[in-house]
């Protein structure tokens, strides 16, 4: 699987987990915080 496809799958998993744990706005904020830290490496 290519790097872009792998990141898309990671994004989807993190986003689903955030939506399961938080309301809509907080979920998106949490998702952004998690993914930006991960992809900035």
From TrEMBL:
Keyword Oxidoreductase present in the record's keywords: the answer is: yes
> Might you give the EC number(s) for this enzyme?
1.14.13.1
Q: Which domain of life is it from?
A: Bacteria
Q: Which UniProt keywords apply?
A: Oxidoreductase
- Please name the GO terms that the record assigns under molecular function: salicylate 1-monooxygenase activity
Which class of enzymes does this protein belong to? oxidoreductase
Name of the protein in its database record: Salicylate hydroxylase
What lineage, starting at the top, does this entry show?
Bacteria, Bacillati, Bacillota, Bacilli, Bacillales
């Amino acid at each position: 699987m290519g790097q872009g496809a792998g990141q898309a799958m990671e994004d989807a998993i993190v986003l689903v987990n955030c939506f399961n744990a938080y309301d809509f706005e907080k979920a998106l904020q949490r998702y952004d915080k998690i993914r930006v830290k991960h992809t900035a490496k």
